[in-house]
Amino acid sequence: MRQVKLGLWGPEVSEVCFGSLAISPLQGRVTEAEGASVLRYALEQGINWIDTAEIYDNYAQIAKATEGYPDVQIISKSYSVSAEEMRLSLEKARTALKRETLDFFLLHEQESALTLKGHSRAWEELLRAKEKGIVRRIGISTHAVAGVRAGALQPGLDVIHPILNYQGLGIIDGTLDEMLEAISFAAELGIGIYAMKIFGGGHLSHDPEKAINFVRGVPGVQGMALGMSSREEVDYNLLLLSGQEVPRNLREKVKHRERKLYIADWCQGCGLCLEACPQGALSIEKIAVVDNKACVLCGYCGRVCPHFCLKIV
């Protein structure tokens, strides 16, 4: 499998990072055991880093799947605001993942310099943790152009995980060209960049080769996180990345698998999900309603619903 260097000072990793949101309870597409089996299979095929987050609630699943793979890199993230919250997040990750030292830890969904300022205490704690050897590399994930630009100037930042696809789907504050300019700016500073949502939450899966080749062709982007919840999806993506012909039966099984956000009819219309949606894809019309063109199927809305009404299916 093709290896890439993540930024000027980062490690060498496989071009594709296993996006574990797809096997987490947040999306509920597979059981914990099934998800661990899929992840283990991906590691056996040569994928050697994993993207997760505290809200995915799948540390135990990853720890189980990575037994015997001590060199696999794990990236996690949290919404911590204070230093104490960040200390708790780091300790939770170290304990549950069974890692004395965390490979990467990011601030989750940072939108701008203002957002980063609001999380300054948590960032300072990340810097201290890096100095102590608790975490090797730190950074941010973002759906925003302003987030990439602000992150690039953040002291001590090593990696940025931005949303990126050929239609600019999911960018919350600007155009695709503006995102490309921001990524170029960050890359010139030596920052490691790995893209998310390259298939636009499934909206671009009709032409996966175009989606992959676009991201591969963006200067400064070294890798990409791909969500996979079956062995067939692992095989499919790795064949695409290698440039090999994908068998027709595998292509039909994976390529046209439709997914959507399901909203149960017992929704109370409380509106909490609207605040959790970074895409602004939800509205209230007595109950929650989704704009399927705007939704990128992240599942973040489901985590805040007190009545368990929202789920990716």
Would you kindly provide a brief summary of this structure?
With 313 residues, this protein is of the alpha/beta class.
Q: What is the end-to-end distance?
A: 31 Å
Biggest β-sheet: strands ordered side by side in the sheet: 3-4-5-6-7-8-9-10
**N-to-C SSE string, H for helix and E for strand:** EEEHEHEHEHHEHEHEHEHHEHEEE
Task: Summarize model confidence as the mean pLDDT.
Answer: 92
In CATH terms, what is the fold-level topology of the largest domain? TIM Barrel
Overall number of strands: 14
What is the domain tally? 2
Helix count from the secondary structure assignment: 11
Unreliable stretches: none
Main CATH class of the largest domain:
Alpha Beta
Beta content: 15-25%
User: What is the radius of gyration?
Assistant: 18 Å
Largest sheet, described in full? 8 strands, parallel, barrel
What kind of assembly state do the chains in view correspond to? single chain
